[in-house]
């Protein structure tokens, strides 16, 4: 391993994997948040879209990292990235110029067995993904519920509603294995008047993605429906990896997800 690069050699084949940093097992949730997610809050208020992925094998702590064990108070060391993001966002919005209006909305969806389900509607309503006609090259989720929120407590309550609807099960390697990819979105809209008297509107979104874990079906003991779930999870993670690699390398062709 060299500086920020892991080199894997197998015979005459050499592969290099770059990384930005490594957290030790004693690293707190607060330290991870401050390093990875905190810098993005100012970006979304400024009108940018940002994404954070939790990616890894099943049972490695992705959902714990994104959500934590408890979300009632940030004083609990286990609180994850999503509750911390919401609290940080409202703190920053309180500090901005009082002449700037702002609106915060949240949505919570999951991708389960190749279907997109809205976790905030009760019963997990299936929704559809379309090419966005107003923004070429982008997609939109039609019919997804976007709830307007005014406090961190309201965000946490909606997070709990969605978690109750999310697909999970017990396997040989994870007592509560996520069987879907979930996307919790914090959206902020700000409105202000420029010195010329024009209205300036900025829209920024933070996508907090808790991916289902890659799974060895033999080790996890998944059979029948659970084995099908695992197959879809592994297939989608492989496709996502190809897309990210193509984007990172600025390839002319990005494989369809």
Brief synopsis:
The protein is α+β, with helices and mostly antiparallel strands.
Poorly predicted runs are 170-177
Distance between the termini: 32 Å
Which class best fits the helix and strand makeup? alpha+beta
Cα-atom Rg, whole angstroms? 20 Å
Strand composition percent: 25-35%
**How many β-strand runs?**
12
GO molecular function, one term: ATP binding
GO biological process, one term: mitotic spindle assembly
InterPro entries: KIF11-like, Kinesin_motor_CS, Kinesin_motor_dom, Kinesin_motor_dom_sf, P-loop_NTPase
Keywords: ATP-binding, Cytoplasm, Cytoskeleton, Microtubule, Motor protein, Nucleotide-binding
What does this structure look like?
GO terms for molecular function: ATP binding; microtubule binding; plus-end-directed microtubule motor activity. This is Kinesin-like protein. Residues 1-257 form the Kinesin motor domain. ATP binds at residues 56-63. It comes from Tenebrio molitor. The chain is α+β, with helices and mostly antiparallel strands and 257 residues long. It has helices spanning 29-45, 62-66, 81-95, 152-165, 217-220, 225-248; strands at residues 5-10, 13-18, 49-54, 101-112, 115-118, 125-131, 139-142, 147-149, 168-171, 174-178, 181-193, 199-210. α1 (29-45) packs across α3. It contains six helices and twelve strands. The strands form three sheets. Strands 3, 4, 5, 6, 7, 8, 11 and 12 form an eight-stranded mixed beta sheet that branches. β11 (181-193) and β12 (199-210) form a beta hairpin. Mean pLDDT is 82; it is low at 170-177. Helix content is 31%, strand content 32%.
């Amino acid at each position: 391993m060299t500086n920020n690069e892991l080199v894997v050699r197998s015979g005459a084949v050499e592969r290099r994997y770059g990384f930005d940093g490594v957290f030790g097992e004693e690293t707190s949730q607060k330290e991870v948040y401050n390093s990875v997610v905190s810098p993005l809050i100012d970006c979304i208020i400024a009108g940018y879209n940002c994404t954070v992925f939790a990616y890894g094998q099943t049972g490695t702590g992705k959902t714990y990292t994104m959500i934590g064990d408890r979300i009632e108070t940030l004083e609990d060391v286990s609180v994850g990235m999503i509750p911390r993001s919401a609290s940080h966002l409202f703190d920053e919005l309180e500090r901005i110029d009082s002449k700037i209006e702002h609106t915060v909305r949240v949505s919570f969806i999951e991708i389960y067995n190749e279907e997109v389900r809205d976790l905030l509607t009760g019963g997990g309503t299936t929704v559809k993904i379309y090419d966005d006609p107003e923004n070429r090259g982008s997609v939109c989720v039609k019919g997804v519920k976007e709830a307007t929120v005014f406090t961190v407590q309201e965000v946490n309550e909606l997070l709990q509603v969605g978690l109750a609807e999310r697909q999970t099960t017990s396997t040989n390697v994870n007592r509560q294995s996520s069987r879907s990819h979930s996307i919790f979105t914090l959206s902020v809209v700000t409105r202000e008047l420029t010195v010329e008297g024009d209205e300036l509107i900025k829209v920024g979104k933070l996508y907090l993605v808790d991916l289902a874990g890659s799974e060895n079906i033999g080790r996890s003991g998944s059979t029948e429906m659970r084995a099908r779930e695992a197959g879809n999870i592994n297939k989608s993670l492989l496709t996502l990896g190809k897309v990210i690699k193509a984007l990172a390398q600025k390839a002319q062709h990005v494989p369809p997800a």
